[in-house]
Every structure is written in C-alpha cells, then in structure tokens.
Amino acid sequence: MAAALIGGAGAALSAGSAEAATGCGVGIPWADWVGGQALTCGDKVFSWSATATLGDLASSTVSAVQPLPGDYLFNLDLPTFTTSSFDFTYVASITDPSRVFSAVDLDSDADVLASPPSILTANFTGGAVPITLSSTNGSSSFADVAGGPQILTVRNEYNGAGAIDSFENSFQQTSVPGPLPVLGAGVAFGFSRKLRRRIQGDRVKA
Length: 206
Fold this sequence. Notes:
4 helices; Jelly Rolls; 6-stranded antiparallel β-sheet; 12 strands; alpha+beta; 206 residues
C-alpha cells in the first residue's frame, strides 16, 4: 500500500491504530463497491460513479482510512503489480456541513525504475479550479483546493506502463469560517463605543 500523503500522515499512525481510532479502514471488494456498498470513513463518503476502462480493477479492493484528524485517504489495492490500464471515476463527499475540502494529494506504489514510466493521473473537479495531479513511477503530488467545496468528483487514470500495485487519493478538510452574526456584531460595536466614551469622560473629569 502506498505511503500516506498529506503532511506525512501515514508515518504518524499505523493503519491498525487509525482503524481503532476511527472505525474505518476495512477493505471492500471492487464489485461490492461498484454494486452500491457504502465506503465511508468519519464524515467522508466515497461513491463509485463510472468505469471507462476496467483493466484489473475487478480483482481490486478499495478502502478509506483517517490517519490524522482532518486527513482522509481513499485507497485502491490490486492483488499484485499490474500493467493493465484502467480509468474510473468516483465522488468524495463530506457529510458534516461545517467542513469543506482544502487540499488533495495523489500517491502510488509502483516500479520506481520502470521505463517507459508508469503514470497515474487524478483529476479533481468541484472546486473553484479543476485540479490534475500526476504520480510517475510512485511519485506523489499535492494541491490546494479552492472554493471550499463539500463534493469532489475524482477521475483516476493509469496508462498501463511500468507496474503499479496500489494508489491513494488523499483529502484534507478544514472548518467552514463562521461569520459573526449581524446582531452580535452591532451589539459588540455599540458596547465598545459606549465604553470608549465613558473612559474619555472619566479622563476629562480627572
């Protein structure tokens, strides 16, 4: 399985401790996931959308883990290294209305010396700007998500060169900024203004 991504999350906690802490991390066979079995972890839901090129995906397993608070990983694990191309799309959703996506990452477990190189791309749409990340021979890439979306559509495409065993899309989330209520702001401003006038009046009397 590929190393965890955002902020070195995988190095901080083992998969076992992450599962114990969050109650997620159990793999689901590809066929069950495509058939509608839920893949959830914390406030994240990962739902299959479409498959353009199946390749060896039929024998793969998908899972989701939370290595650290605010970091979630979607993992696809093949039974062995493959050079069979694949292309599929899923939707990542946040169910907590107070949270939004803030960053994404892509990493793969592949032959680092492969030539021609194994190339996996991930396209994330749903934010203010579409994001395309690439993992070449197991490299990782990262990008911030603009616009604060709660739903991202993710397309993963593998070119079928070199050899790949697994990959991870990781998602970082943050809290939605809460605006100060208009009434509360007005009351606070009025109070501070009266306080300043009182202090100034006391100074004049002194």
